Known about the structure:
The structure holds two protein chains of two kinds.
Chain A lengths: L18 H25 L13 H28 L2 H33 L7 H22 L3 H15 L2 H11 L17 H50 L1
Helix pairs in contact in A: 1-7, 2-3, 2-5, 2-7, 3-4, 3-7, 4-5, 4-6
Chain B lengths: L3 H41 L1
Amino acid sequence: xxxxxxxxxxxxxxxxxxxxxxxxxxxxxxxxxxxxxxxxxxxxxxxxxxxxxxxxxxxxxxxxxxxxxxxxxxxxxxxxxxxxxxxxxxxxxxxxxxxxxxxxxxxxxxxxxxxxxxxxxxxxxxxxxxxxxxxxxxxxxxxxxxxxxxxxxxxxxxxxxxxxxxxxxxxxxxxxxxxxxxxxxxxxxxxxxxxxxxxxxxxxxxxxxxxxxxxxxxxxxxxxxxxxxxxxxxxxxxxxxxxxxxx
Amino acid sequence: xxxxxxxxxxxxxxxxxxxxxxxxxxxxxxxxxxxxxxxxxxxxx
Lengths: 247, 45
């Protein structure tokens, strides 16, 4: 039984920029991405041990950091939904989850492309790689679960609970290289890191570009959810007016 | 340069994943926008 309200929730258009703002935002992110790609390939110094293959790092690492940001948004949105039951949080949660899965896919694809020439293997089931793969499976399951429940409010509640459970894996992925002996390289930034400052700047630039993509994609995906809500509301109104005119 | 093909493959993969995802979102958006227009048109009639 549908519990969809015929009214649009408050702040439903909060993530709704105009078409001009959308285009400007997309162009700026594309320019930033192009510049970041240029710096990663031609400006950053070549790493002494690995050589040119290390340049994959400039998009592999930021894609994972961006995925963690996306899943943190999912967690916040899921908790906020369970507290207030405002559908906008559900829309934000599913939008960030889907975009997060795209970023994790980038990380899971670029990792083995780097690993094969360096480790001589595409993949190994060590703690970091396994927990990262589990993270991808969890959020794909989160998205699949939503397709199985038709009633909007129940779907939002079940997926919010599942999303909070899935978030448990995020610190496991992040800290696995500290807790376990892994094939995966140790952190090169922060405490004990040995990253050259010029490499660090390019890495941050690439992360900024990835965050730009994240923002553009989440906003656009949020519009899909808002329009889906509009379609359901208009259908409900049409069926209500049909039943009234039938009386 | 050794392994340049792998770097190229990784960059192509990054672009391809984002492009395919963005394409699917744009298609869903266009489909829903036309559905909203259709329902609003039906409502007016």
